[in-house]
From TrEMBL:
Record's protein name: Leucyl aminopeptidase family protein
Protein family (similarity comment): Belongs to the peptidase M17 family.
Species whose genome carries this gene: Sphingomonas parva
Lineage: Bacteria, Pseudomonadati, Pseudomonadota, Alphaproteobacteria, Sphingomonadales
Domain Cytosol aminopeptidase intervals: 309-316
Gene3D superfamilies assigned to the protein according to its UniProt record, in alphabetical order: Leucine Aminopeptidase, subunit E, domain 1 (3.40.220.10), Zn peptidases (3.40.630.10)
Amino acid sequence: MTDFQPLLLADKGEPATSIVLVDRNGYDAWLTSQPDRVRQAVQAQAFRGEENQIAILPGDGAEWSAAAGVKDAAALGPWSLARAAETLPEGRYRLDGIAPGSAALGWLLAQYSFDRYKAPKAPKGPRILLTAEPARTDEAILLAEATALVRDLVNTPAGDLGPAELEQAARAVAAECGAEVVVTAGRALDEGFPMIAAVGRAASADRAPRLIEIEWGNPAHPRIALVGKGVCFDSGGLDIKPASGMRLMKKDMGGAAHVLALARLVMKSRLPVRLHVLVPAVENAVSGAAFRPGDVLRSRKGLTVEIGNTDAEGRLILGDALTRAGEGDPALILDFATLTGAARVALGPDLPAMFANDDALAESLLTAGSEVSDPLWRMPLWDGYDEMLSSDIADLGNVSEAPMAGAVTAALFLRRFVPAGTPWAHFDTFAWRSSAKPGRPKGGEALGLRAAWAVLSARFGA
C-alpha cells in the first residue's frame, strides 16, 4: 500500500513553496493584483483559473510559487488539490492563507500508485503538504489508506487474488487492528452455508470457497455487521459470460474490498461498536462440479432457491452471509457488492445504487454522500416486484424472467435474508473507474465507502 504518512505533515513554519488557489470568478481580481512578471508568466502558461489548471509563478531569485485553479476557492472539495499533487515537482508545499480541509484527501490519493506488475523505475519524489489541522491530518490519512486498500485489492489480477488470498488480506487487516478471524470452509461450509458452497464448488481445490468473519470490539457496544461480496473471479458459471463481460471480473470482489476497508476505518478509529465483518469468498468457475441452471439450492435461512441463471451468483453467497449477520441481532447491516449490470445501466459507473429498508438510514447516507463528495442514489425496494422472483418448485428464484428492474429484483432477493426490523442498506457499486480523473486513476475505486464511513462515525461515534 502507498505510504501516505509522510505526505501530509503538521506545519511548523519550515520553508515551503506557496500554493495560491484561484477560481474563475476571482481570476481577474487576483491577476490584477500581481506584479508584471507574474502576470506575464500566467499569460504565457494560458492560466485562467480553470479547474485543474496549474501555473508556476516567479518570485525573487530562485524562489517560486504555484497557482492552482479550483472550482471554488472558498469551498474546497476532496479533489481540489489532486491535479497540483500530480503535477508539481517534489518538495514541501503550503496553501496560501487557507487550510486544505477535505482537499488533503485528494492531495494524498493523487500520489497513489499500483505498480506491482511494472518494471521498477525511479520513483517520483514526494509532494508534501503542510497543514495546521493535525486532527484532520489523521482522518485524511486513514481515508486515503482505506481507499488505497480497495484500489489495491480490486486492481490485483484474479490469478493472484483468489479466495485464499482474500482470506489473507482479511487476516492482515484483523491482525493490524487486534481483531479475531473465523473461517468456515469444507464440510462445515457445505452444511452451514450451502449457497456459498454451491457457488464455489466448481473451482480448483486451492481456490475453494469459504466464509471469512472478523469480530472486533466490546460486546457491550452496539453491534454492526458489514457484508461484502467476495467473488474473486466470475466466469458466469455454466451461464458463461462472453469474453467482453469477463474481462474485468477480477473486480467482482470489490464489495469485499469495500467492507475490509470500512472495517479498518472503524477499528483504527476505535469506534465504540461491536463489529462483525462477513466476506463470502468464492470463484464462480466452470467444471463438472458447477451448479446448474434449474438446480434448487437450500440456503442457510432454510429458504429454497431455484437457479435461473448461474451468473447471478453474488446474491446467493450474500444471502447466506446476510442470514449469518442477522443471527447476531445487529443494530445495523450494510452490504457492498458489485452486483448488477442493471445498476450501471441506470446510474453509470460513478454513482452507486443504494437500497435501504429504513428511510432514516437512507436519508443519512444520501446526505453524507453529498457532504463528503461520495454520492449515492437511492433506488426503490419496490414490493410489487417481489413476485418477479417467484418459482414453481422453490421458495423463490435467483433471477426474474423479465428483462427489467434487474438491480431492484436483486436487492429484493437480498432483503429476503435480512431480519425484519433490522436497518439495512445495500450498495450496488461498480468499484472501478473506467477513465482517469485527478487523484482517481483508471482501475479499482472506492465508491460509497466514505459516505458509509461518515454515517457510521456520526451514528456510533463517542
